[in-house]
């Protein structure tokens, strides 16, 4: 007698399904040996959303002084010097300064960042 096994179904992932923002991921901690499991289960938002919002806020503040930022970037010899000078002159964190170096200083980029920051603020306020 020949046994045939069902072939596993392949899931077709779309681009939208794979691109789940870190904000929407939840970390669930469960106490398996706890007598009251419902009391022990808690959901916490992913902290990367707060970090993203902090970076966006720093970049948006620097966009208000984009001429000064461009001057700092032009006169800096290398990337490390540019990050250090941005942190000193604009009181940015290391993440904010490195993100600012990587972004183009255009109005379109600023609008996208402002829109994303507003989405994060709305989602975190819930």
UniProtKB/TrEMBL annotation:
The lineage of its organism: Bacteria, Bacillati, Actinomycetota, Actinomycetes, Propionibacteriales. InterPro entries: Topo_IIA-like_dom_sf, Topo_IIA_A_a_sf. It comes from Kribbella sindirgiensis. It catalyses: ATP-dependent breakage, passage and rejoining of double-stranded DNA. This is Uncharacterized protein. GO terms for molecular function: ATP binding; DNA binding; DNA negative supercoiling activity.
